[in-house]
C-alpha cells in the first residue's frame, strides 16, 4: 500500500564542519555503516523499497553508496572482506533509487515539495537520516505503516522532550486516542518553552498523504523564512486528520555531536556487547 519513501538530504551539515565540508553528513558512519543506510534499512523493513532522495550540491557520495563499485568488488572478491558488503548489496537489489535536487535550502517543507516528482499521487514515508531510530520490536517506520493501514491519514512520530528543549522541534497538541496516539489539534514550529502547547516533539519520521503537496504549494513561508512542514500539517489536521504517534523505541539526534557520539556508543554496545 505504501512503497515510496523520501529522504531529504540536501542540508549542509554545518554542525559537523569541517568533517562535512566535502562529505555529506548522511554518509558519516555510526560504526561501519553510514547514517543514511540505517534509514534506508528501516524503510525496507517497513516495505518501502522505492527510495527517493532530495539532494543538493556535494551529495554525490550518497548516489555512489547505493550503487555497485565494480573496482572495489574486484579488489576484494574472494577475500573475507567481501561479506562486509552483504548489507548494502541487499539494499541495492531490493530497492530502486531516484534523485532530484533542492537547488536552494528553504526548509523541510520545501525539500518535501521538491520530492513531488519522485512520489506522484501516492502516500509516502519521510525519513530524516539525522534521527537514528531503533524500535524495540519493529522499526519505527514499520510501526507507522501499520497505523496508516488503520487511519489512512498523515502520521508524525513524536517523543517527549524536556520543556526547555521545545525550541529545537516542531511541537504538537492533540486529543488522546490512546497512551501513544493523539489526534493533532495544534502544531507549532520551534516554540519557546513558555509558548509550547506540550512537550511532545516531532522527530524525523513521517507518513504523508499526497494531498500534502498541494497544501505545501499553497503554504506561505513561515518561521526563519522557510517553508515549514508543520504549517502544512496543521492545515491538514484542521481540514481532515493528522495522527501523532509516540513510537516504541529509541531515537538519537545524530545531527548533534553529542547525539552522534551517544548513538555510536549505543551501537557499539549492541554489536559487541561491551562499552567502548
Provide an overview of this structure:
- This protein has one domain: Spore Coat Polysaccharide Biosynthesis Protein SpsA, Chain A (Alpha-Beta Complex), CATH 3.90.550.10.
- Helix content is 32%, strand content 26%.
- With 276 residues, the chain is of the alpha/beta class.
- The protein has ten helices and 13 strands.
Key structural traits:
276 residues; Spore Coat Polysaccharide Biosynthesis Protein SpsA, Chain A
Strand content: 25-35%
Tell me the Rg in angstroms: 19 Å
Return residue spans where pLDDT drops below 50 for at least 5 consecutive residues. Answer: none
Number of strands: 13
User: How would you describe the oligomerization state of the chains in this entry?
Assistant: single chain
Topology as a string of helices (H) and strands (E): EEEHEHHHEHHEEHEEEEHHEEH
Structural class: alpha/beta
Sequence-ordered SSE layout with sheet pairings:
Elements: E1 4-8, E2 29-30, E3 33-34, H1 35-45, E4 50-55, H2 60-65, H3 70-76, H4 86-94, E5 96-101, H5 108-114, H6 116-119, E6 124-127, E7 131-135, H7 140-151, E8 154-160, E9 170-176, E10 181-189, E11 200-208, H8 212-217, H9 229-239, E12 242-246, E13 249-253, H10 257-272
Parallel strand pairs: 1-4, 1-6, 4-5, 8-12
Antiparallel strand pairs: 2-3, 6-11, 7-13, 8-11, 9-10, 9-11, 10-12
